[in-house]
Amino acid sequence: MNRFGRFARLFLVLAFPVSLVSCHVAIDPGPNSTESPSLSPAPSPSNWPSSTASPSISPTASGSETTSPSSTPSALQKAVALYYVGKTELGFRLYREFRNMPVGHDAGLASLRFLVKNKQRPLDGDYFNLWGNGSTINYINYTGEKATVDISVVPLNAGSETELRAIDQLVWTLTANHPATKFVNFTSGGKKFESFAGHVDARKAFSRELHYEVLAPVWVDQVAKIMSNPVVMRGTACTFEAGVHWQLFRDGEMIREGSTLASGGCPIRGAWTVSLGILRSGDYLFSAQDISAKDGSITQEDSKDFSIR
Question: Is the pTM of this model over 0.85?
Answer without folding.
Answer: no
